[in-house]
């Protein structure tokens, strides 16, 4: 049983449920990263003195700050840019017109200082930046600027990682945008997507071609017990299509035990692994040839113990159906699920009869539902259809080499190879 739910409806329901404090869907339409000494010149009539390499000339101390002084109508996403040669940034302070301090953190590469929250609209600010030369000389620069008013022409955005939740090891950080982010804006947006992992693990952002989604993951699944802290600092960021970022989003979540499912169409069986140990094998029925299941690595996106699959709007009155479903676990936006299917028990392990879903016997579906988490991966092999990019959280359906190609920012060589232990992002950034 099962066929496709509309993407728009599913997104709306997931985000609406998240705003209420839970990730859930309602009615669905179903399956389907020593200075060298100066040289000694020798007189041929004297004993030769030891030779040494030339000393490199000192780097001149240069120090600049942005924005320009008295700049007006800046976005509330404004950062204090810092550029120093022959020295380093010592401190950055930002205050509003009333003298109230604004909290913030320097990016790790010290290219700018990022406020910990969006600045206020229609507000005057003064930034005081101190840099110290290599010789110990301190220099202070002050700039004042003002922010623009709120436009009301915002993008819609969502983040599929919620505070305090526990997820599976394949859970990417997923950003959703409506409309999609134009290509020329993606680097600027990506620089405002901040991720930290504890223990540290590398990761990179990848954009789907439409710009409607961006995923963050590493070369390998997250380590069990990892804490992920995310800030999508998008409020007020200006885009080339005349829109602005809608809001800052934050979440700190945990990664639970490693739980992996593998399905082979050839055998019509599901193998279930917990912490790399095989714990269960179940017979399954997949999508029949006319409505095949998608082959690839999919991720559990949502779970509902009881729901209704209603496909009349999608398939019409002749082929559509409305069916009560138990233990439903969404895998794609198009409507493929793992779920209980008592009507196909005789077919499970033998033949494929579903509309694209992974059918299980009720007792097996119930056990599996009690074990899985959103973010757990399932790999399906050998069906007539490949998983389409963006049809669900398809971050793990790409090799690492292909995944890093989707970054809008340059990816260091240290992050391009599997098993990388490089920094968490191409330009590590603060989440405070």
From TrEMBL:
Domain of life where this protein originates: Bacteria
InterPro entries in UniProt: Big_10 (IPR041280), LD-transpeptidase (IPR050979), LD_TPept_cat_dom (IPR005490), Transpep_catalytic_dom (IPR038063)
Keyword check for Signal: yes
Region spans: Disordered: 411-432
One Pfam family, short name: YkuD
PANTHER family: L,D-TRANSPEPTIDASE, L,D-TRANSPEPTIDASE YCIB-RELATED
Descriptive protein name: Lipoprotein-anchoring transpeptidase ErfK/SrfK
UniProt organism field: Asanoa ishikariensis
Taxonomic lineage from the root: Bacteria, Bacillati, Actinomycetota, Actinomycetes, Micromonosporales
């Amino acid at each position: 049983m099962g066929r496709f739910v509309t993407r728009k409806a599913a997104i709306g329901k997931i985000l609406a449920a998240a705003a209420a404090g839970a990730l859930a869907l309602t009615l669905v339409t179903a399956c389907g990263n020593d200075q060298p000494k100066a040289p000694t010149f020798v007189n041929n009539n004297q004993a030769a003195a030891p030779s040494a390499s030339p000393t490199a000339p000192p780097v001149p101390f240069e120090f600049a700050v942005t924005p320009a002084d008295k700049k007006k109508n800046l976005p509330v996403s404004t950062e204090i840019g810092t550029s120093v040669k022959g020295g380093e940034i010592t401190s950055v302070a930002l205050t509003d017109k009333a003298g109230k301090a604004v909290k913030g953190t320097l990016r790790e590469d010290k290219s700018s200082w990022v406020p910990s929250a969006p600045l206020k609209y229609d507000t005057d600010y003064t930034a005081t930046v101190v840099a110290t030369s290599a010789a110990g000389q301190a220099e202070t620069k002050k700039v004042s600027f003002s922010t623009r008013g709120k436009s009301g022409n915002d993008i819609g955005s969502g983040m599929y990682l919620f505070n305090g939740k526990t997820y599976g090891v394949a859970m990417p950080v997923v950003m959703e945008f409506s409309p999609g982010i134009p290509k020329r804006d993606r680097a600027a947006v990506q620089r405002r997507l901040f991720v930290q992992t504890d223990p540290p693990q590398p990761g990179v952002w990848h954009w789907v071609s439409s710009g409607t989604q961006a995923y963050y993951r590493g070369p390998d699944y997250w380590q069990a017990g990892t804490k992920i802290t995310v800030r999508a600092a998008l409020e007020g960021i200006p885009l080339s299509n005349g829109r602005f970022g809608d809001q800052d989003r934050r979440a700190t979540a945990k990664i639970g035990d490693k739980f992996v499912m593998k399905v082979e169409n050839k055998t019509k069986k599901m193998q279930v692994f917990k912490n790399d140990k095989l714990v269960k094998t179940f017979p399954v029925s997949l999508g029949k040839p006319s409505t095949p299941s998608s082959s690839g690595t999919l991720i559990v996106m949502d779970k509902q113990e009881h729901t209704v699959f209603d496909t009349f709007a999608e398939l019409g009155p002749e082929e559509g159906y409305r069916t009560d479903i138990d233990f439903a676990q969404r895998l794609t936006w198009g409507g493929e699920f793992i779920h209980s299917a008592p009507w196909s028990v005789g077919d499970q392990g033998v033949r494929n009869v579903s509309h694209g879903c992974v059918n299980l016997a009720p007792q097996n579906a119930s056990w599996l539902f009690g074990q899985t988490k959103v973010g757990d991966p399932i790999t399906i092999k050998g069906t007539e259809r490949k998983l389409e990019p963006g049809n669900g959280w398809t971050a793990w359906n790409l090799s690492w080499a292909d995944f890093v190609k989707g970054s809008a920012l340059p990816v260091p060589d240290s992050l391009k190879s599997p098993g990388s232990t490089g920094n968490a992002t191409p330009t590590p950034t603060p989440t405070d």
